[in-house]
Amino acid sequence: xxxxxxxxxxxxxxxxxxxxxxxxxxxxxxxxxxxxxxxxxxxxxxxxxxxxxxxxxxxxxxxxxxxxxxxxxxxxxxxxxxxxxxxxxxxxxxxxxxxxxxxxxxxxxxxxxxxxxxxxxxxxxxxxxxxxxxxxxxxxxxxxxxxxxxxxxxxxxxxxxxxxxxxxxxxxxxxxxxxxxxxxxxxxxxxxx
Length: 193
Fold this sequence. Notes:
Elements: E1 5-10, H1 17-24, E2 32-36, H2 37-42, H3 54-77, E3 81-85, H4 91-100, E4 105-112, H5 115-125, H6 132-135, E5 147-150, H7 156-166, H8 175-187
Parallel strand pairs: 1-3, 1-4, 2-3, 4-5
Helix pairs in contact: 1-7, 3-4
């Protein structure tokens, strides 16, 4: 059984990842799952028998994101193609994904938007903490991407079309493979000598 392919839409909150992910589905030849991290987070209960302190909230969010990574792997491990909508806003997220997605065909897409436009969208949405988009404008990718779309003025549909058209031309090794090799070289015992 082949492993599924993965498209990782990485960008700041309000950059348009979810809209692009939905627009991509009818453009891709094979059946794909669109699995945004917000949907996984939305499955978690919001009412608790006691109030959680910040340390407990941080640990809960970390477990949720680690579970999200593994849910994507579970789908892809049996041949499903998956679109992830996920900001790599913390270094550990990328590091964990590099490990659990080892051996998978991952296309890393930067979904970029001008900071001023991110702030405008964030305010218009009203469902995000003020400043979240600005805090994620330097998402962790260590500068490596396979494709980049700019949503500042472009529509989600045009960005999705651009991704779908360019996917077959992405050369190997892909960004995730290059990042993994670089990370392993930096942490190998011989590199520390």
